[in-house]
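Example record used in the benchmark description.
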Amino acid sequence: MWRDSLLRRYVALGLSLSFSLQVSGCTSWQAQTRPPTEVLTTKSYTSVRVTRLDGTRALVYNPRVVNDTLVGFPLPETEKFRGDPVSIPATEIRYLEVNKTDAGKTILLVAGVGLVLVLIAAAASAASDLGGGGQDTMPISCPMLYSWDGAGWRLDSGTFSGAVMPALERTDVDNLVYARPEQDRLRLRVANEQGETDYIDALSLVAVDHAQGVDVLPDGIGSGIHVVSDPISPVLARDDAGRNLTERIGTADGLVWESVIRLRDSSRVQDRRDGIELAFTRPAGADSALLVFEGRNSQWAAFLLYRLVHAWGGGSEDWYLPETSAEAAARVAPVVAEGGPITILVRVNGDWQPRGQIREIGPEVAKRVAVPLDLTGVGGDRVEIRLESVPNFWQIDYLALAAKADDRVQVQDVPLASAIRQDGADVRSALVEVDGSRLVLERGDRTEITAVTPPVPSGLVRSYLVRTTGWYRIHGGVKVAADTALLRAVAGPDGPAVVAVQLANDALARLH
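Model output (structure tokens):
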């Protein structure tokens, strides 16, 4: 069964990642003169660089020695983990470079990433109706958007996460961190790498010319772009488990905050929410500010969305039929909207008041957004903010507060020159505007997009953003009976959070 294979695979990977996180931190590469087997059997390393006898190199994550063979996972130096295990016989290795850690600078907030993978594996193996579509893969969705950085393709965005039916189609605006034009030509690639069908209604490139030293960030809801300068870190940050996050959350360093994975009581409101409380020095005289957020959804959140879609069984077909899609959306949309986002609250006269939201980002890549906050009613020179969501749904790397900048920027849409599908067809006309004419991508399909960028005005620098509109259809599950018990539970009061906590408890019990 695919579920048993998934359980074995991700329990092993999850435990490896958990251990690796505990030994990761501030590192440097150091060449080793000892034999590879001796290096790896006397001490554990997060990763090693391998130089083979033929001069080729490989970066191997979670390396270990099995029967005089180095095994681990391939990790391209400009990418995050992906791929099947790799094996390199010791007789083919010229030398190793090890990634040594300064343990004094390492702070482990949670065992997070690894344990989440184990949690997913246990939950997936317990489910009887996932079907899996014949795929032994993680249930992560969304179209993938890559930028050409001058040397290779870099993953820059997973777009319109959670838009799993036509009625949930939405627009996202994301920074293109890695995009680098060559001879005024910028290249993007949109790809479907999952068990789904992607429907992209529109895709456009936005160029923002601005002063050096400021950041141009989307608002996270697809409607605005903000200029951020001199963001300030929190003077205090603490999570609901009592952990002091002040130093860690004020630095974008890739070490994320994530909920503690533990048994929770789904009948208690306190256990159905988890979050971080922060205090900032108030920008002088400001009645509004921008909360700068960098993070992503966890794989657990993606898995539960996948699980929820499959719970409808054959009934999910109604989502895609014109005569039934509106009624289906009325049932499904509130569940998706209620379960995933982060609620932002501001303390006003001792009470927490909702003042903003960060909607689903997806687990593919961390994104940085700037959320406008109304500070009306906040007295004094201190601003207290709380972020909360369903436990284990988010990984947060960085939080800061900034005054709304009045820097003038020049914003312009850059027309697409071409959009060439993998079969050679130019599908640019399907992407020009939101008109129902969609680019459809099945698993394995991709489209390469080019745009000719105008000159950058003298004295300014340029940031690129991409605006995408669409939705996607997750495959599998339509041939099985609906999980009526789960659907009843998720439709109840605070249903998504109740179900998420109960499924996490069930997965933990299964592990034990």
